[in-house]
Every structure is written in C-alpha cells, then in structure tokens.
Amino acid sequence: QCTYCLYPQTLNGRTYRTMSVEQVAEEFAFIARELPQVREVFIEDDTLTLHRKRTQALCRELIRRGNKIPWTANARADVDLETLELMKAAGCRLLCVGVESGVQEILDNVKKGIQIDQIRQFFRDTKKADIMVHGCFMVGNQGETRETLEKTLEFAKELNPDTAQFFPLMIYPGTESYAWAKEKNFIATEDFSQWVTQEGLHNSVVRRDNLSNEELVAFCNRARQEFYLRPRYLWYKAKQVLRRPAEAKRLVKSFGTFARFLLRPAERI
C-alpha cells in the first residue's frame, strides 16, 4: 500500500504472490547440493515477512531440513520476536528494512501502515534475536521539511542499524508518489538520465517550495557521514567484529567501496 513502491502498483496488482514453503525450501536444498560455492542467499521477495504464518512455516521447514546456508531478506519493521527467533534459527543473517522516516506524519502520508514505536520495538527485538539490520531511510516525501530531515537522521542514530542508506524519494512512473508529484508540478525533469547522480546514486528530481533537489541530495550525503562516523557506531562495529569474525572481511570490503563517499567534505543545508 506504500505510495512509492513500484512493483506492487505496476506489476503485481497489489497482491503478494508466493511459491509454496516446500518449493522455497527445496531451492535452498538444491543450492546446498549443486552450488556449494554459494555463501549466502538473498530472498528477493519485496517483503518476505508480510504474512506471519507463512514466514514461520518457511522457517520451520528450513530448520527441519537442517539448512546451513545463511540468508538475507526484505522485511517490514513490525516482525515480532517469536518470528525473528525462528528466522534466526532457520539461517537468517540480515534483514533489509524500509524505515523511511522518523516522523509519524510522513509515514502516514506515504501509507506505510506502521507506528514509530513499532519500529523501535522491532530494532530492540532484532538485537535480542541476533539478526543484523540494514536500515533504509528515504527523504523528500510529502510533508518533508528541514526539521523533519533532522528528526529522521536522529531517529536513524537512535535505532543504530548495522548499516544504513539515505536516499531521496524516487518517483517511479505508475506509483501514487509519481502521480502526486505530477499533479503538483514538482517533477524537475522527466529525462531519466538525470534521475541518478554522477556516482550512480538516486538523484532528487522532486522540486519543492521549501526544499530544493540539491538540498535533499546534500542532506543524504551528510547523513551517511554523520551516521557512519559516529563514535557510538564505530565502537558498536568494533565489538561486532570481535563477536562475529566473519563480519570483519565484509566491513573492510564495504569501507573500501564507500570511503570516497564517507570521507569527502559534507555540504550542510
């Protein structure tokens, strides 16, 4: 139901189509048997955890079959602790979660269907279940101001996910967000080559009376730096590496990739 999600609105008719639990578990078994070089599986469902009963059934089937392959999936920030613990036992290493905003009004505007306190509880529970989280934060939605941008950044720091991304709203044709921006005459250009930055990141093409496209892109750059270069975050990652040696290699590789974004001077808005 989210206003910005592309596939549910343009391809799937707002329905959630799934394979059977047995078929998914059999694909894991096939990978383990025929593709031993595979180190991890990413379950590409838009939202694996949409239906609690099916999620739990899948995890129980993977556990029953003795799955040893770690996996990552997309999830909403409303999964309960019991389900998270089952997911961990079934091999879940990390969840990619769309937090989007730290402001309830904006979450309501984009029809996220979740409360700020639910998000806080989810992050507490993922730590209890020992599942890592990649938090996705999106700025420039209806109701965004300079003040709400800062609230979202502070919320990200409070939640302290294992990794985080900050990007401007991307208004894909066919979505409610695109229709809203079109109606308000907010779309700066429909030349799709301009919808990404020179680095290949999401560009902002939704001009607003109170926030320019340049301001939103500059905020995202600054937010990434402030989030990742905090003493609290660096200390958290240091402890994590000691507890999970396998994460050390990922951390070094990630830093090498993103150092040019994190260490360049940030432009304040």
TL;DR of this structure?
This protein has helices spanning 6-10, 21-34, 52-64, 81-89, 104-109, 116-129, 146-159, 176-183, 213-228, 231-243, 245-262, and strands spanning 41-43, 71-75, 92-100, 132-139, 163-168. It has 269 residues and is of the alpha/beta class.
Structure description:
Helix 2 (21-34) runs parallel beside helix 3, helix 4 runs parallel beside helix 6 (116-129) and helix 10 (231-243) packs antiparallel against helix 11 (245-262). Helix content is 48%, strand content 12%. It starts with 5 loop residues before the first helix and ends in a 7-residue tail after the last helix. It has a five-stranded parallel β-sheet. It is an alpha/beta fold and 269 residues long. It contains eleven helices and five strands. The protein has a single domain (6-262), classed as pyruvate-formate lyase- activating enzyme.
- Secondary structure class reads alpha/beta
Low-pLDDT sequence parts? none
Overall tally of structural domains: 1
Rg for CA atoms: 19 Å
CATH architecture classification: Alpha-Beta Horseshoe
What's the structural blueprint in terms of helices and strands?
Blueprint lengths: L5 H5 L10 H14 L6 E3 L8 H13 L6 E5 L5 H9 L2 E9 L3 H6 L6 H14 L2 E8 L6 H14 L3 E6 L7 H8 L29 H16 L2 H13 L1 H18 L7
Parallel strand pairs: 1-2, 2-3, 3-4, 4-5
List keywords for this structure.
48% helix, five-stranded parallel β-sheet, 269 residues
